[in-house]
From TrEMBL:
Protein name: Ubiquitin-like domain-containing protein
Family matches, as InterPro entries: UPF0538
Origin superkingdom: Eukaryota
Source organism of the structure: Gonapodya prolifera (strain JEL478) (Monoblepharis prolifera)
Family statement drawn from the similarity comment of this UniProt entry: Belongs to the UPF0538 family.
Length: 119
């Protein structure tokens, strides 16, 4: 899971989740797992005050990667995991799928000018 604190500053940290049952875990449960890990895993202190609320598929195994290094911009209907009750496998999540976890409102603002980067 790619935990994104800021899209403009490209602040991203990867969180590797092992032994997640894709046929049993729902989108809502994955959000809970990620939020709990952010609280407990060392190195995520800057992300504690983040208001991440959305999961979106960044790339699937054997799939094409987005040219955007932070987030897969576009195709929101296809790649956004918005139904909290759906199983991950039903959403197209498979082995080695990279998922971004970010704030939806910040993403909407970022979509208007994805080429603007603040340093």
């Amino acid at each position: 899971v790619r935990v994104i604190k800021s899209l403009e500053f490209r602040t991203v940290k990867s969180l590797v989740l092992r032994d997640v049952d894709l046929t049993d875990t729902t989108v809502g449960k994955l959000k809970e797992i990620v939020k709990e890990r952010i609280q407990t895993v060392p190195g995520f202190k800057p992300y504690l005050n983040g208001n991440q609320d959305t999961l979106k598929i960044y790339v699937s195994a054997q799939g094409t990667k987005s040219s955007n290094l932070v987030l897969n911009v576009g195709q929101d209907d296809e790649f956004t995991l918005s139904d909290e009750g759906r199983k991950l496998v039903e959403c197209g999540v498979g082995h080695e799928t990279e998922i971004s976890f970010f704030n939806w409102e910040a993403y909407q603002a970022y979509k208007t000018h994805p080429d603007v980067v603040k340093w």
